[in-house]
Amino acid sequence: MRLLINKIVLGLSTLSALIGLAFLGWILVTLFIKGLGSFHFTLFLNDLINGGLRNLIIGQFILAGIAAAIGIPLGMVAGIYIQEYGRGKYAEVIRNLSDIMMSAPSIVIGAFVYAIIVVPTGGTSGFAGAIALAIMMLPIVINTTDNMLSLVPRELREAGIALGASKYKVIIDIVIKAAKVGIMTGILLAFARIIGETAPLLFTSETSNYFSLDLTESFPSLTVSIYDLANEPEQSSRDLAWAASFILTVLVLTINLAGRFFTRNKKS
Amino acid sequence: MPVMNIKDFSFTYPGVDHPSLKNINMKIRKNKITALIGPSGCGKSTLLRSMNRIHDLYPGNKYDGIIELLKADTQKMENILDIKKENEFIQLRQRVGMIFQKPTPFPMSIFDNVAYGLKIAGIKDKSELEGRVEKALKDGALWKEVQDRLNKSAMGLSGGQQQRLCIARAVAVKPEVILFDEPTSALDPISTGAIEELLVELKKDVSIAIVTHNMQQASRISDYTAFMYLGDLIEFDKTENIFLNPKEKQTEDYITGRFG
Fold this sequence. Notes:
The complex is a heterodimer of chains A (268) and B (260).
Chain A: H1 2-38, H2 54-85, H3 88-102, H4 106-121, H5 126-150, H6 154-162, H7 167-195, H8 199-202, H9 222-230, H10 235-267
Chain B: E1 2-12, E2 21-29, E3 33-37, H1 44-50, E4 62-71, E5 76-79, H2 86-95, E6 96-99, H3 110-120, H4 126-139, H5 143-146, H6 159-172, E7 177-181, H7 189-202, E8 207-211, H8 215-221, E9 224-229, E10 232-238, H9 239-244, H10 249-255
């Protein structure tokens, strides 16, 4: 009887795993078929106005890059603070707030930035988009830094102190180095997460058909343009959306895999 | 001659009513090994960690009494419990080094590990650094094994080698006292033997206090032994007296294995 139950449970869990995997595979296969069908290397050479995606890919990277340049240092310093310096309730409040922010719907963050930046400045801008992405990224970086630092054994900190190092030297020279791989992996995953975000950009940076480096104007964004193109009536626009989705997926997958590869290599 | 003199010392952890150490009186003598033994929870590690005030990493501890440390140039005893300023703490820890139960190599090269304390002490000259690192690794009985891979990560060394690296790192800054907190309990017998030999060798230059769970280890290497129980120092004497002629009944019971 017990053997039978065992078999049934095993069968059921295998089945659910397969169903889950099947959908994932389905998404990837559809993307590859539809995306590759309309994919062409000239997409990388032309801007959207000429039927290409060049400005969008570059724009997306610039937005995510600026967001990372704001979010990574801020998040790391905050993470270091709550793990190494923060004591008692104060640090606990920040930690909880950051956890809550992590699950805040991205569209809400988009709306928030719309209210505090887009409305006062009178229009959508690349800058507003980058800020929205930075806000998305911040809690992930805080959380990773906090967690990874907490894995560094207490003795390692004490050993540094016992050699006459001051607390901040121990943190900079020893603790962060010991947690480096974990933190970098977390940052890469956070970057992969924000580079594929649409909702925070939808009414902050908007998107643009033209190549632009001007962060005070609407800024080209791959994800927002996918959303726009998919709503267009012409087949050619929808094909372009598929191609863009395909490129975006490959990008995100690559960054994710790079992050994982990184950790595994360092651990062995 | 004592380098450390502990007088009526009591210690209380934060948020606890009762002191973990009560009225401890003992001395760490110059160029001798002093062992602290006793069952788990007796306070031997707590006492050791008071001697370089590493407790102060965590706020809220309460010290009572006096722990004096001999100042080499003036030959005067100074109370380390009076220390309040950051730079005085740094000096204290350069004078009183510490080795932990688990080896604690820093995630950097073997050379940088040993040079770390020296750099903090302000030594920048490259050839002086190289000389001091080599000397320290020789003192730590590790030079022969690592001399051709000084720039490799210290994480690749075996546990016993890592522990000797930590000893070399502590010796490099030329402390007056080194505190060992169960330095061999995570190591195999052969590595343990190597470390014990090293300690006996090191006492020519430094004074040593060692916490150990292993009574045989205390009797093999130490000159003085303190037996502690539930926060009290029960007996402190020459090692042979403690092991052959203990005055206190509790000491005798512990070393003959009747409890603990």
